[in-house]
Amino acid sequence: MIKHFLNYFSFSILNAALTFLISIYLARNLTIEEFGMVGIFFAISFFLKPLAALNSLRLVSIEKNNLSNSEFQKFSNYFISLSLLWCFILVLLSLLIAPYFEDYIFLIYYLPLYIFIVMLGEFHSLVLIQTKDSKKH
Predict the structure, then answer these.
(1) How many Å apart are CA 75 and CA 93, to the nearest integer?
(2) What are the counts of helices (DSSP H) followed by strands (DSSP E) for the chain?
(3) 117, 88 in Cβ contact below 8 A?
(4) How much is the pTM?
(5) Helix/strand/coil percent split, the chain, to 5
(6) How far apart are CA 8 and CA 75, in angstroms?
(7) Which of 1, 10, 64, 121 is deepest in the core (most CB within 10 A)?
(8) pLDDT tens by residue, 25-63
């Protein structure tokens, strides 16, 4: 249990530190317009991530405790496949709307990839902290 906590905690600290350092770097090296585009990118991703995951990331922790290992593996495969399918749909939508928003083309093309990577990270974090032993505590 301590090992899982330390693993999760260390990556949370690393994530927070990198986010802080990257925001300082971006603020010093980007123009106001470019920094605004980064803000728009994260604002849009904040709303599209639950859509791509069908707002079911918390279901992972419930299923991890209720299913056997083989059943949870099947659930994980279905969940990741569905998330990948939704991100593919977002890519298709990006290709359709990109010609109309040429100033934001960078944001439009990279947003689906970013959302998928963030979803996988959250999925991994939820699996990491949920074990069968957590029912005892």
Answers:
(1) 27
(2) 5, 0
(3) no
(4) 0.62
(5) 90, 0, 10
(6) 22
(7) 64
(8) 888 888 888 888 888 888 887 877 777 666 666 677 677
